[in-house]
Amino acid sequence: MTENKNSINQKWYASWFDTPFYHILYKDRDYQEAQYFMDNLTGYLNLPEEAKILDLACGKGRHSIYLNSLGYEVTGADLSENSIAEASQFENEKLHFKVHDMRDICEEKYDAIFNLFTSFGYFENDEDNLTTIKAIHNSLNETGFACIDFMNVDYVIANLVPEEIKTVEDIDFHIKRYVKDNHIFKEIAFTHEGEKYHFTEKVQALRLADFEQMMEEAGVYLLDIFGNYKLQKFYKNDSERLIMIFK
Question: Where is the Methyltransferase domain (predicted)?
């Protein structure tokens, strides 16, 4: 049974990703590293000069904007209406943004589809992960490539920081991390203007074997696996990322 999409706004990722606090907490994400990764990835894939790229779960569009600056025709898609509204100010003839559920097949076909920065594994229903991979597969053109950039679960769990306080823009974010029921949880509590907030991020602890099984079921061919943004070899215990290229 597939999750009822009408109830998606009650899901944690729909509410938390749509708040300004999400973007405040993560404002220091490394843009230089993201651009370096995009340079390496597009170079490795040897994409045609004006390739059509879908940045799936694009957030505020930082990867989309940079990919567009490299000359590609880019569509950024995300479930968060607020993120898309903010990203849309950067639109041009070859850069567009849309609200889109990653489980749905796109009407257009793309030369490349990128799902970056652990933007996968949020759904309550395991079947939705497979549905997403099938949707990505069916949204590629005949020569297209896809990339899922996920955390390396074994590395993350081994290096998990159970508790910390992160202060950004005078807000003290109290963060707790733990593993439960094959998910990695991050609880975020803070007070702003006298009001208390609490959000929980929850991502499925998907390992390479899980992705391989889903890709096999989806009829997807896994071409290559990398362990970091330099596109170096993946090591189960030591690599920070699990980057999978498939078609």
Answer: 53-144
